[in-house]
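Hi Q.,

Before the meeting this afternoon, I wanted you to have the zinc ion prediction in hand. No need to reply - just skim if you have a minute. The sequence and ligand are here:
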Amino acid sequence: MNPRLCPICNEPLERYGEIYRCRDCFLFADPRQLMGYGDDYLLHYKLYREKTELSGLIQRARWAFVHQYTPTRRLVLLDYGCGARAFGDANESNLIRVFNYDPYFYRDHGFLKADIDVLTMWDSLEHMSRLDIVPLIGAEWIFLSLPIVDDVEDIFTWKHFVPGEHIWYFSEKALELLFRKWGYRMLIRQDIEAELRSKDVASFCFIKI
Ligand SMILES: [Zn+2]
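Predicted structure with the ligand bound:
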């Protein structure tokens, strides 16, 4: 992917302060060199997960969301960008087989041989330099949480503006357009984590058309 082109409309991105944007798609991009995700980055999440009740509440809310919009039958789920594997470890269903994958922390390529029914990306899409991996996975259902820029007045002072980590800043419109391009439609936006974390963290379920 050319980082200077909009991943939705393929038009050149325009300069916007220190980053870039596509005005038509309402998307911002920060293609600067990524920081390396060192082991201390993961350690932070491991400690967070072990030490806080909130982490458990977030994982339960995510699982409830997945169960609400998928059928009760055997399903294979890939948690892409799994970090410390908190979500996968909180699986209580015998019917759902979970593959964890994280390019920085847990490279289990076992999912490559599986047919993935459900893809989850909790706080991960905005970190991905290769967005085009998502349609290749080909899941029927995609669930994700991420910060959404719709109500942000100044992106550069926004809590979720994280240079070196976040490459993309999506509006709801941009997300919907991107997934439509990939052959998905938005089934629902349900901000299951907003109250637990930050009002700008939105959650979505997309299904294959
Ligand atoms: Zn665009």
